[in-house]
Amino acid sequence: MRIKNYKVKIKKCGKELFFSSSVFCLFNFSFLIGFTSCQTDIPTINLLDSGKDLPAETMKGAEILYSDSAQVKMKLTGPQLDRYEGEKPHIIFPKGVNILFYDDSMHLSSTLKADYGIRYESEGKMEAKKNVEVVNIKGEKLNTEHLQLDEAKNRIFTDEFVKITHGDEVIYGDGLES
User: How far apart are CA 61 and CA 99, in angstroms?
Assistant: First the structure.
């Protein structure tokens, strides 16, 4: 398609102004692009302006090994990891976390699965939330909605409802400390 060359005549204050067709088309095209290219995404703007702490880095298909005295103690994996910096640095697994715990001989001692996990690196603490399941090498299974781990004290605890399965025996309770 070819635009024929024409002139636009504009009368202003008794003076006639002439624009060639190419200038007129260029003006219309740039106006159209400028008018349609701007987009306001209110949720994104609110998030950026909200002062919320945004992750310093995000990783897909994350895998982290934690060791003590050159011995691997645990392996954390998850579909997504968000690392936050600041006064209280932490790592969040917003789409779930799997943890493998190892003994001093590097044998698997227990596993943990949850739909959400958060680890406070400097404090050596971790929380697992939503559909938490812990299984030890004996096959004993713990199910709860919120479980906290304190690595320094070598303890796990919760105040939530728990279900412990050991063979054919099932124990229900509120809270647990081990």
Answer: 14
Q: Assign 164 to helix, strand or coil.
A: strand
In this structure, what token pair is assigned to residue 67? 């060791």
Collapsing DSSP to helix, strand or coil, 46 comes out as: helix
Provide the token pair at 28: 């219309």
- φ/ψ (deg, to 5) at 28: -65, -40
Instruction: Find all residues with CB under 8 Å of 124, minimum gap 6, and list them.
Output: 150, 151, 152
What does R_g of the chain's alpha carbons equal in angstroms? 30
With tokens 């728990």, the residue in question is 162
Measured between alpha carbons, how far is 66 from 75 in angstroms, rounded to an integer?
Answer: 6
Global model pTM greater than 0.85: no
Q: Which residue has the higher pLDDT, 144 or 105?
A: 144
Amino acid identity of 40? Answer: T
Dist. CA 119–CA 84, nearest whole Å: 10
**Residues 130, 112: Cα–Cα separation, whole Å:** 12
